[in-house]
Design goal:
The protein has about 230 residues and is α+β, with helices and mostly antiparallel strands. Helices cover about 15% and strands about 30% of the residues. It is rod-shaped and about 150 Å long.
């Protein structure tokens, strides 16, 4: 019997038998004898690794690509206890006064509108418009009244639409006069009126009727602190 088997053994029979054993047991062999670090990305089927396959704390900061985590990836943590109030900081230096400190800084300009008028029963009646600068001037400016259509002057280089005044001057640009015999500037503290009179806090613009009926004068003004 053994002679017959030996007589039939050939190289092909031996190799075929070995192939059967390898096919039947090769998977177990490979699973138990894989060399260290032999399984790489190409050996892992896409989507085959799940979170349950990862060991606890296996993913660390070094394994996370910078800038890839989103706010939704972080667990909302409860607010901790509030800390003690910090010490009060040192008092800061006192700031500069506003843009128009008292007295009004030299070269600063204030602007506004005026109108004085009414209905006169006869010529010679008076109408007034009181103007307050809102700031005290360091010294008296010189007043000027420019009639409607008058040309600009060095002291009053502006216009009705753009009232201007040189330093130390107050300029009144009259737009229109109706039945007005003349206009003056008055000091509200002593009621003295002149072509240039006023005080350091404001002025009263006065116009006088020339006939029965409505009369008025209006326009714009500017004063620049001396």
């Amino acid at each position: 019997m053994s002679g017959r088997i030996r007589g039939r053994l050939t190289y092909a029979n031996v190799m075929a038998t070995a192939a059967v054993f390898i096919a039947l047991g090769g998977g177990a062999y490979a699973a138990t004898t894989l060399p260290r670090n032999s399984v790489g990305s190409t050996q892992i089927r896409k989507g085959a690794v799940h979170s349950s396959d990862l060991a606890r704390n296996a993913v660390t900061s070094a394994k996370v690509k910078n800038g890839t985590l989103l706010p939704a990836d972080f667990k909302q943590m409860p607010a901790g206890p509030k800390g003690d109030t910090g010490a009060t900081g040192a008092t800061g230096a006192k700031g500069d006064p506003g843009p128009f400190p008292e007295p009004l800084q030299r070269g600063k300009t204030l602007r506004g509108n005026f109108i004085a008028g009414g209905h006169a029963a006869a010529g010679g009646e008076l109408a007034f418009d009181s103007i307050s600068y809102g700031f005290t001037l360091e010294s008296l400016p010189t007043g000027h009244i420019l009639a409607a259509g008058a040309a600009a002057t060095p002291e009053c280089p502006g216009s009705l639409a753009d009232p201007q005044a040189a330093v130390g001057h107050a300029c009144f640009y009259v737009q229109a006069n109706l039945n007005s015999a003349g206009n003056l500037l008055c000091n509200p503290k002593n009621n003295l009126c002149s072509a240039t009179g006023q005080n350091v806090e404001g002025i009263v613009f006065r116009t006088t009727s020339s006939a029965v009926g409505s009369f008025y004068a209006w326009g714009t003004w500017a004063v620049t602190a001396p």
